Write the structure tokens for this entry.
Amino acid sequence: MQLVRLIVLAVVLIVMCVLASRAKLVPGRAQSIVELLIEFVNGNIIKNTLGLRAGKHFAPFLITLFFFLLAMNIAGVIPGLNLAGTSVIGLPLLAALWTFVVYVTAGVKKRGIAGYLKHETAPPGLPKPIYLLLVPIEFLQVVLIRWASLTIRLLANMVAGHIMLVVFIGLTQGLLLSGTWLVAISPFAGALAIGIYGFEIFVAALQAFIFTILAAVYIQMATADEH
Amino acid sequence: MILAEGAQSVPSWRLLVPLPSEIIWSLIFLVIFAVLFMKFILPRLNAVLDERAEKIEGGLRNAEKVQEQVDQLKNDQEQELAAARQEAASIREKARTDGQKIVDEARTRAESENERLLASGRQQLSAERIAASTELRGEVGTLASDLASKIVGESLTDDERSRRVIDRFLDDLESSQATTR
């Protein structure tokens, strides 16, 4: 597990470092792809949630998060690695906690601790008794549920993807080698396995995107002005 | 298959509760990645991106400026052209009026000259006529007196008397001419 992560880490960082140190004004193909990804995070995640100007401060964090998760997720569908770096709880948990720290810090820096807690847990304009119910729920959400849900969403998706791949590839192999009439079904199982493989590539990108956009949304909630 | 075999030996709650080593390794990887990414890779790439954006923007602005200049020049040129055309038209107009004026002047001068010539010719004519008539008067007188003396004889050669007779005759002639005219 750690070996897979190490390999992914090393490959991604070396490639990125080489690209960054050789970055030119007129980009080559690889540089274009990386720039496309950065622009994607900038345009689709940061611009839509925080706005480009407010998001400038958090852009490095969000882009790093996106690249990190994307790389680790993609490892799950790379032949030879076949294990997503995020399919064991350590990485999703730490990434989520990092997000938690970032958005709480941003909120506290803007409003102070009390102001931040009030802003997040007690939306204005509600009848008094509701607050009795709302404040504990919101508080729990801020300090626990947000990062826990980030962790579990990512982890569960990656684990499930991995298990599905294993199941379908194993099924294909089992059917193919069964030696009975079940061999006839094995191509369908194989096709399904390939389909799921493709789907996992999509899921890897999608989960990285979701994680990042939720992080951006949490930051936005922590720093937004009162509506 | 590997995972399935592993799951039998590991209780399922292990999925959500990380081992200490897992946390430590993850932390190391995350920190390495984050530091390298945020401190080196992103600034470089962002610098390149910004530089490019700036360059493109500068280029666009430059193009705009040049376009503006071109428009200005074109405008100026057109204005100059229009002014030149107008000037040419006015010059042509002036030339035409000048020519007309010259022709008119020449015509009036010619007319006056003509008139003058005519008048002088008439004057000369009348002067000549007067001269001729006076000369005739003299000659007619002498001729007539000669003729009369030849007819009447010596007695009428006396100058004093003949002149008086001739003068009276001519006066009569003149007055009769004036009444008939």
